[in-house]
Predict the 3D structure of the following.
Amino acid sequence: MTQTLIMNELWKKFFLRTLLFFAYALVGAWILTLIEAQDDTNATIAKRMLDSLRKKMSFRYNITNKTEFDEFVTEASEAIALMGKKDWSFLNACGFTLAAMTTIGYGDIVPQTNGGKGFVIPFSLIGIPLVMVALKSGGELISLGVRTTYVAFSKRVLGHESCQRLLPRCLAIAFSMVTIFICIMGGVQTYLDEWTFLESVYCWFVTCSTMGFGDYVPLQNYAKTIGNSTGRLVFSGIMLTLPYILGLCLVSSLVNVMVEFSEYELAHAKSQVRRLCGCYQCGSHMHGLDREGSVEHDNNNVDVQLQNFSKKDAA
């Protein structure tokens, strides 16, 4: 019986949260469509650009054959795309394994051979759980540190004997820490790669949330300036990795506190509802007892009056 109740409760949670998830996704898709939609499709714009380029090539270089023009455009686009791809150096390989194990997956460098693609599958199956466990431990460590620091500050500095509403305050602190970290790294990114501050903050938010769209990769331009010496590669690899790990641990800490806070609030709301229902049932029961007592008291009065009236008649 207890297991059935637990299963029913889990099904209710799953259904409501999944419904909320889809509703939120649909609203977000609608808003992004309003913001990002263009009057023309990308295919139409590309065709217009190619037509303009064909006219220029025909006028300047007398390339009127459509086949020759298509071959030229294909070879030029392939060369430009190849020029933008990263080489498989050790530093770039470290960036790939980090992005794969953390599930960020920028897509700026991917294995090209069958051997590399086959290796990534078992490597990620082992690496992803290892990273998840490590980040979970890091997040719990940060959460415990935040909670301990706040309790000590509240007691020693503010003079509070007990900490009221500890979880909301820890949640606010964890959210502030993540926000400050993303803003700081955004400022660093703006200085190193000469991006706008919004682009840099967007890049680090996408990274720390493990979305990793690939349109912006943190410290990518700075990594190109690093030499090939072993010492510089090791030092730069460590310096480039530490911000990733710290940001992911901070986000893990925030998620831990958010889950704990949501579960606490849900349990508190359920207890309040049960208490109100219990008080209502108790009040209804007491009200029923009062009414029964009142009716019984009235019936007794009627019986006494009838007895007195019959005694008078007998006299």
